[in-house]
Specification:
Elements lengths: L4 E12 L2 E7 L4 E5 L6 H13 L18 E10 L4 E11 L2 E8 L2 E2 L12 E4 L4 H5 L2 H15 L1 H22 L4 H39 L6 E6 L10 H14 L1 H7 L10 E6 L2 E2 H4 L2 H23 L4 E5 L7 H6 L10 E5 L11 E7 L2 E4 L1
Parallel strand pairs: 3-13, 3-14, 8-12, 12-13
Antiparallel strand pairs: 1-2, 1-4, 4-5, 5-6, 6-7, 9-10, 10-11, 14-15
């Protein structure tokens, strides 16, 4: 992995959402962004988080990031790294007729692919939308695990990218009604990275479950939470790569006629899920809203602990309006995330309780403008 980021020093924006033209300096510890809803607090966090994967955490397309009635937007983040470097991450998005062009640069060098950002800018975002990971459709959980895995594990990243490309091409072959020999070749190309992705996800789920249990004890959770990776191709925890690949190819052969009829691949990790449990029961079905919120807290803390352990450095933590989502008892016990070496950003509509530490930078956000004080 490249050198690890330890803090964000500066963000410069032009026409990014409602931030018309801002240069904002941040402190090395706790940064509190205060403002009413719709003023631009989350937009500022979004401009930072964008460089984790080259994608917004809430926009469906890059076009949504451009300020209304403007032809382009730009954001540049200046960061400090553990090896002493100061480096810039820059993105420009431009409307060209009915299309959108995007360029991402690191230290002035153009990146060929968004995936080249993986591991370069490790930030963790925790906000109200994270409840979708717990309560939403399986795709939200798959996306969460793949985001965490590809940040720290090059083998996970390689398997995920190879599987995605093979899946797209195999689906195209199905729609074109390719012959048997061609489909068997695609089965091989799909099964190898697909099996690797399944095993990496299973390993990550076990790792995050252990970390989540530790965080639950620290927060004095009264509930017994767990998770289980659900994959039809994994009959047991002992299943290895070769056996998994063979089962994968056999399942593809068995479903060949149905896949050809529907024009889509019906077997593989793109259809898996991770079940979150409250005791022996499915948390989605039997958990209360408060229990699902607490699970979301613990899952994000597990992600943070995992990334910091793998990178051996503190991550930048972004907390988007979480104080309105969780009760005071939980938030009181969450105060430890503000301490230590990591840089933290918090958005809130009101002032936070005073802290003993003087390493707090307070910024007010109003109508897309940011003011110190």
């Amino acid at each position: 992995m490249p050198g690890t980021i330890v803090r964000v020093d500066r963000v410069q924006t032009v026409n990014f959402r409602n931030l018309a033209g801002e240069t904002v300096e941040f402190g090395p510890a706790l940064n509190v962004l205060i403002g009413e809803n719709g003023q631009g607090k989350t937009n500022l966090l979004e401009s930072i988080y964008y460089f984790r994967f080259g994608r917004s955490f809430r926009a469906q397309s890059d076009a949504e990031l451009i300020r209304f009635d403007e032809p382009f937007c730009r954001v540049e983040v200046t960061s400090a790294f553990t090896d002493g470097r100061t480096e810039s991450f820059a993105c420009g998005i431009e409307r060209r007729g009915n299309s959108i062009s995007r360029s991402i640069k690191v230290a002035g060098q153009l990146l060929p692919r968004r995936s080249d950002l993986a591991g370069r800018f490790p930030v963790v975002l925790f906000g109200p939308n994270d409840l979708r990971t717990v309560s939403g459709e399986p795709e939200h959980r798959r996306r969460f695990f793949d985001m965490v895995g590809t940040t720290t594990d090059p083998r996970y990243l390689r398997a995920a990218n190879e599987y995605r490309r093979a899946l797209e091409q195999r689906n195209a072959a199905l729609k074109a009604r390719a012959g048997r020999d061609e489909m068997e070749a695609w089965n091989e190309r799909l099964a190898v990275p697909g099996s690797e992705l399944i095993l990496r996800r299973r390993e990550l789920a076990l790792r995050l479950e252990a970390l989540m249990s530790a965080e639950a004890r620290a927060l004095e959770s009264p509930f017994e939470f767990s998770m289980r990776y659900e994959c039809a191709l994994l009959p047991s925890e002992e299943t290895g790569a070769e056996e998994l690949q063979q089962r994968f190819k056999e399942r593809l052969l068995a479903s060949a006629s149905e896949e050809m009829r529907r024009g889509v691949t019906l077997t593989g990790p793109h259809r898996d899920d991770v079940q979150f449990c409250l005791g022996p029961n499915d948390l989605r079905r039997y958990g209360s809203q408060g229990q699902r919120r607490l699970f979301a807290v613990l899952l994000k803390l597990a992600e943070l602990a995992h990334l910091e352990a793998e990178l051996r450095e503190p991550c930048v933590l972004l907390l988007d309006d979480v104080f309105s989502e969780f009760d005071s008892a939980i938030m009181g016990r969450l105060q430890h995330v503000f301490d230590g070496a990591r840089q933290v950003f918090v958005t809130t509509p009101v002032e936070l309780p005073a802290r003993e530490s003087q390493r707090v930078r307070t910024l007010h956000v109003e109508n897309g403008r940011v003011y110190a004080g």
